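Protein 1 of 2
SEQ + STRUCT:
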Amino acid sequence: FWKKHAKIQERPPEFWSDDFKDLFMWMTKEEPEKRPTIQEVKESAWYKGKIYTQEEIANKMKPYYEKYFLN
């Protein structure tokens, strides 16, 4: 799943953190009762993870902006 999406989106497979992948897979369980509540999402490692500064976000997004909007 992740390798296929990385290829489609032209991103390295490690683009998505393990914490994000774990949360995503939990949130997309087939049976709704097995999905996390909002509170469980807020308690997840991904939700509590690093918050980027505006400068860090700009630096991370710059290559994508240049590729998709300037070419």
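Protein 2 of 2
SEQ + STRUCT:
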Amino acid sequence: AVQRDGEELLIFLPLGSNRFERREVMVGRTAGGFTENLSGLDAPVEVVIEGAFLLNSEASKEQMCAGHEH
């Protein structure tokens, strides 16, 4: 599922062993539950559909924590 993080649109690719790659994408039209990919994915790949919002929230939280380390 496509997620918004500020101005970025992103998806998560499953890597296995509870690991995921966050990837910025550019999308086009949406219809019937499908979204057109304009850039960010080169070929048909598996993307996270369920739980993508949670992954985005966790990734954002980790970035904020990393930015506040002294």
